[in-house]
Design goal:
With 90 residues, the chain is mainly α. It folds into two domains: 38 residues; 26 residues, no CATH class. The protein is 67% helix and 0% strand. It contains four helices and no strands.
Length: 90
C-alpha cells in the first residue's frame, strides 16, 4: 500500500477557479491536476540544478582539458601525497 502525505494551501478564489477549470478541461480531479503540475515543476527545478550547461566555447575548452590536462600542479601533487597517506599510512 502506497503511503501519502497531505498538503494544504490557501489560494485566492480566482486561482482556485482557474485550476479547477483547467482540471475539468483535462478530465482530471483538481487534486490530480495540481499534484501533476507541482510534480512537473519540481522535476524541472531539480533538473535545472543538476545539469551543467556550457556554452560551445566552454564545451570545447572542457574537452581539450580532458584530452590534454597538462602537467600536475604542486597542489595536485600535494593532494595525491595526502590521499596516499590517508589510504596507506604505513
Amino acid at each position: 500500500m502506497a503511503t501519502t502525505a497531505r498538503l494544504e494551501a490557501r489560494l485566492p478564489l480566482e486561482v482556485h477557479a482557474m485550476l479547477k477549470r483547467a482540471a475539468e478541461i483535462e478530465g482530471r480531479t483538481l487534486t490530480d491536476f495540481v499534484v501533476s503540475a507541482a510534480q512537473e515543476a519540481a522535476r524541472r527545478t531539480l533538473s535545472e540544478t543538476q545539469i551543467i550547461r556550457l556554452s560551445m566555447e566552454d564545451q570545447i575548452r572542457f574537452a581539450e582539458a580532458l584530452l590534454d590536462p597538462g602537467p600536475p600542479t604542486q597542489g595536485l601533487i600535494d593532494a595525491l601525497r595526502a590521499n596516499a597517506q590517508l589510504i596507506d599510512p604505513d
